[in-house]
Write a structure and sequence with these properties.
Strand order of the largest sheet: 1-8-6-3
CATH architecture: Beta Barrel
Radius of gyration: 11 Å
Largest sheet: 4 strands, antiparallel
Distance between the termini: 6 Å
CATH class: Mainly Beta
Structural class: mainly beta
CATH topology: OB fold (Dihydrolipoamide Acetyltransferase, E2P)
Number of domains: 1
CATH superfamily: RNA polymerase II/Efflux pump adaptor protein, barrel-sandwich hybrid domain
C-alpha cells in the first residue's frame, strides 16, 4: 500500500532529508518546506520505504501537490 506525502500549503522546498530507497518510520522528518517565512518540517504519515521523490531543493509547491511516495 502506497502513502502519498502532499504539500499542506504552498511554499518552497528548502531541503530533502531522505533519498529514494530509504527506510522511514512514522513521524520521521522527510523534508523542510518554507512557507510564510517559516521553516515547516514535513513528517512521514506512515513507516515504509521511500519509493519516489517528486521534488528537490528550491522547487516551489502548491497545496496538495504530490511531493513523495512511501511504500
Amino acid at each position: 500500500m502506497s502513502v502519498e506525502v502532499k504539500a499542506p500549503m504552498p511554499g518552497k522546498i528548502l531541503e530533502v532529508l531522505v533519498n529514494a530507497g530509504d527506510q522511514v518510520n512514522e513521524d520521521d522528518e522527510l523534508l523542510i518546506l518554507e512557507a510564510m517565512k517559516m521553516e515547516n518540517p514535513i513528517y512521514a504519515p506512515a513507516g515504509g520505504t521511500v519509493k519516489e521523490i517528486k521534488v528537490k531543493a528550491n522547487d516551489s509547491v502548491d497545496t496538495d501537490q504530490l511531493m513523495m511516495v512511501i511504500e
